[in-house]
Amino acid sequence: MNLTYRLATEADLPEIVSMLADDKLGATRETFQEPLPMAYLEAFRSITNDKQQELTVVEADGVILATFQLTFIQYLTYRGSIRAQIEAVRVKSTHRGQGVGTELFQYAIQRAREKGAHILQLTTDKKRPEAKRFYISLGFVDSHEGMKLAIS
Amino acid sequence: MNLTYRLATEADLPEIVSMLADDKLGATRETFQEPLPMAYLEAFRSITNDKQQELTVVEADGVILATFQLTFIQYLTYRGSIRAQIEAVRVKSTHRGQGVGTELFQYAIQRAREKGAHILQLTTDKKRPEAKRFYISLGFVDSHEGMKLAIS
């Protein structure tokens, strides 16, 4: 497949949300309906107005197959380093198991390097062991615990 | 102790870096010397110019005892939610075991709520089991793996 990558536009939003919802965990978290709940549009604008965020769509022949979000975070640690964080990675259910995820990560790694990041990081739910195996296969190390506290 | 919280200024930077370096893992990562390497100042300015970041110092009687960094990240997931991420948490070695960390987290949780975050998250190195126990005691759940990929 010849994949292309571009920043998402508002017109892509329904397709992106439908991918986020089309997943065993995502189905309980998202509300995919037309018109989309306004909260998604507001969140989208907030993301695209933030220079440290990139919401990307992956296409083949003009059709969206996948999405991911990169956030670049400046820290003082490691002598003033930047980390790239990747979240909300989804490949359309009809196109899984075809190497799209691997190519997507190669692109994300390259993009993170361009932005000067020394680490690419993510957290993955322990209820998704297959996802962890995939990240290990890409070279990620499970050196950290990902701790979450619900505060609302 | 009567702790107060404020955003860090450039004048606090040597004190903050000395705390980051005064730690078994931090010692190998940081360079604390006067004058500080310029990379820290550049990183500091990048953090303070970013509306989604807050680098905070904790004081008692005008003396800095601790520091932490909050990042607010807008996502589409969970119907357009904001997550707060806390990193670079350090309590001065002379003041550990006195409840400063617990109070610091109570403040950070309140601040994250004010910013509309529904989750406060962090990753903690598996080589710091005592840190994980502390986060569990605060109510954090170790539901995720924190995966890191060195890219430079």
From TrEMBL, chains A, B:
The keyword Transferase applies. It comes from the Bacteria. Keywords: Acyltransferase, Transferase. The keyword Transport does not apply. One of its GO terms (molecular function) is acyltransferase activity, transferring groups other than amino-acyl groups. It holds the Pfam family Acetyltransf_1. PROSITE patterns: GNAT. SUPFAM superfamilies: Acyl-CoA N-acyltransferases (Nat). Residues 3-152 form the N-acetyltransferase domain. This is GNAT family acetyltransferase. The lineage of its organism: Bacteria, Pseudomonadati, Bacteroidota, Cytophagia, Cytophagales.
